Hints:
Blueprint: E1 16-21, E2 28-34, E3 44-45, E4 56-58, E5 67-71, E6 76-79, E7 91-98, E8 106-109, E9 116-124, E10 133-135, E11 140-143, E12 152-160, E13 165-173, E14 178-179
Parallel strand pairs: 3-5, 4-6, 5-7, 6-8, 9-13
Antiparallel strand pairs: 1-2, 7-12, 8-11, 9-10, 11-14, 12-13
Amino acid sequence: MANTTFNGPVRSDNGFETISKNATTGVVTIEADYNVRPNFRVSVDSTTFAAGGGTTDTLTVQESGTTFLINGTGDNVINMPALSTDNVGTTYTFYVTTAVGAGTTTTIVLPGAGVSNFFGAIQLMGGTAANPVSDVAGDTITLVNSTVVNSRVTVTCVSDDGTNSTWKTETLTSPIATIA
């Protein structure tokens, strides 16, 4: 189909879809469905890691853009999605709402040990001068025991070829988060 230019509003009773078509098989995939009123608010997940007692869960690409609230009274393990080119651009934010307890941690783990890395801008939150550092040492971010309420981490996948991935992360925590 040729490109079409409209002068004025475009209307549809049944929405709009953006599709891709596989050149070999001809299979059509819906990439985006504009059939509902857009919602530009961030999704907040106040259940998955907020229950206390600790949770292990693997996030999905569909949860990209979600802010997760974290109760640190138990060990939490947050696994990033499996290696896939679909991960590029995926972003998650985590806020500590109950301090990470003594003897517990919350970890954010990349898939494929040794093949993925966090590029971290790590900053200590506090009433005195903070000491930001850069770290690219590993595939696990740890919010150590005693991490305070309002500590936060944002992670974004900047490359993933299905075999290796790189995620940018920004942390603002006290005590300082680690990457290993």
